[in-house]
Amino acid sequence: MKILYGLAISLVVLMGLAVVHAVSPRAFEAVERPDPQSFDRATIAHGERLSLIGNCAECHTAEYGEAYAGGRPIPTPFGTIYATNITPDPETGIGTWSQEAFRRSMHEGLDREGEHLYPAFPYHHFAKVTDEDVDAIYAYLMAREPVRNEVPPNELRFPFNLRPLLAGWKLLYLEDERFAALPNADERVNRGAYLVQGLAHCGGCHTPRNALQAERKDQFLRGEVTENWYAPAIAGDVPAAVTWNEKQLADYLSGRWVEEHGVAVGPMAPVAHNLARASEQDVAAISAYIATLMEGDAAEGDAEVTGAVGDRPDSGDIGAAIYAGACAVCHEASPSRFAAGLPLAYSTSLRIPTPLNLIQIIQQGVKPPEGEPGPYMPGFAGAFTDRQIVALASYLRGRFTGLEPWTDIDDVVAEATGERRTGANDAGAAEME
Amino acid sequence: MIGLRVNGNRFETESDPETPLLYVLRNEMQLNGAKFGCGLGQCGSCTVLVDNRPVFSCLTPIAMLAEREITTLEGLGSIDNPGPVQRAFIEEQAAQCGYCIPGMIMRAHALLSENSAPDEAIIREALEPSLCRCGTHMRILRAVHRASKGLQEQASAAGESNR
């Protein structure tokens, strides 16, 4: 109720601000699609590496769709937003956008015609990106093959479907200012800060948001739930058994297996897959900056966690039996180094405030990127009943972390399996003899 | 003592609760359809159905299975009277060494029970957890399409006769 009340007040404020700010931004003329040959090859390559850091393709590509052709549904608390087509198709993409129009979209969140864009497109981060880098991304996108793909219209509830309201949101939350170097940091850390706060938009998932989906500056990178996964805190008190060091961060961010932390999963997996193909120096810079934000001494605490902590399995506990029969074969004493899972005492998913990630991983497993080798874990969605997942999750948390038990496992499991069943039933059920 | 329901029959076992189902099926019940491949949930040759959903029996402790319905390859039909999916696999000769085939058939059966007319992408996704090292994939896909077609024809024939 309190939240609703706050939301209502904020809305009134927003509408007021929108009225004040109602002067429509101007439209940029439609231009001929620039000749791909007119861009310098080095600029295009630079733009490609930057777009990998920005993770652009992840949102702007639909499942089984052409890269950058849009159409991926982005769920928000206000309804569904469909990512736009950013291939240079003149009718359904950004083929008629000038470089100036593209810059303005990245920095101010306006489309070519001057309509406000939703901050699901993280222009509040991209505002920090230099003109030069934005231009390189423009060159990369415009030199690609145009793909004709009409994207479905957004499905947002009133009043969130009114784009002029976004003018109010921007007055409150958008600072149209390029990145300013940190005074007490070296060049590499500054490069990392520029990327993390700007193009890589890490805060988009990792920073807690307020009721209007704006990131809370005082909670920068302190952990938040996004799309049914918890993006853990990567600044301050970080939920990890072993404090991260720069090398581990760089390996993890490049999609590699890290002995003390495992591998990127869930929505972080595509991020790491993209960063693996970005500039290595940039990934190192990101790691250097993130390491400065994390509390704890990376030099200490290494190799402290060697095996299981907490109680040994209790034979009466079904969670213990499931762990012994289904999990331990890989997560303890694996017969093959190719099947060695993360010793669960190292697991971040067991140390975060919510069982969300653990339950997602148990149900869906872990898969390497399509067509590539990489760490694999089978999903157990059909094998475990809800009650069994709850028992397993409580057992793992208790045995391997010694942290306070999760109190909401039942709800999280019920919601996750409920969603899964609805999904399965969509496929036109028919009885077979 | 743990009680299991396999292919409609009740079976009691003295094995430890964490024992994987596969070992009970093969060693105690002589149901050898499900195969031991990797023992790590990576190859799919041990796949059986629990409450009609495919699971890796090598990673399914029997402690989890009380009061649940287990179906193995043997539960889908016999040599003399194969089930619709088994028949389609025989007709397409969709096996080389055959080791993965029980798992493939169980997954195909589970898929077709939910959706009798899946398209190629859905079939591929459903069978993805099962590995075939002989390269029989094209025949396996044809067999699933054939089984799907058979089921649809059956359904429409049943619809006609009801009219």
Write structural notes for this entry.
The complex is a heterodimer of chains A (433) and B (163). With 433 residues, chain A is mostly helical. Chain A has helices spanning 2-20, 41-54, 56-60, 99-108, 123-126, 131-142, 165-173, 187-197, 203-206, 246-253, 268-275, 280-293, 318-331, 356-364, 386-401, 409-425; strands at 73-76, 79-82, 155-156, 224-226, 229-231. In chain A, the strands form two sheets. A three-stranded antiparallel β-sheet of chain A has the order 1-2-3, with no helix packed on it. A two-stranded antiparallel ribbon of chain A has the order 4-5. In chain A, a hairpin with a 2-residue loop joins strand 4 (224-226) and strand 5 (229-231). Chain A starts with a helix and ends in an 8-residue tail after the last helix. The model of chain A is unreliable at 306-311 and 423-433 (pLDDT under 50). By secondary structure, chain B is α+β, with helices and mostly antiparallel strands. Chain B has a five-stranded mixed β-sheet, sandwiched between helices. In chain B, a hairpin with a 2-residue loop joins strand 3 and strand 4 (53-56). In chain B, helix 2 crosses helix 5 (137-162). The radius of gyration of chain B is 16 Å and the shape is globular. Classes of the chains: A mainly alpha (433), B alpha+beta (163). Chain A binds chain B through residues 64, 315, 318, 320-322, 324-326, 329-330, 334-336, 339, 376-378, 380-385, 388, 424-425, 427-433, and chain B through 17-20, 38-42, 50-51, 53-56, 59-64, 68, 84, 109, 112-118, 121-122, 129, 151, 154-155.
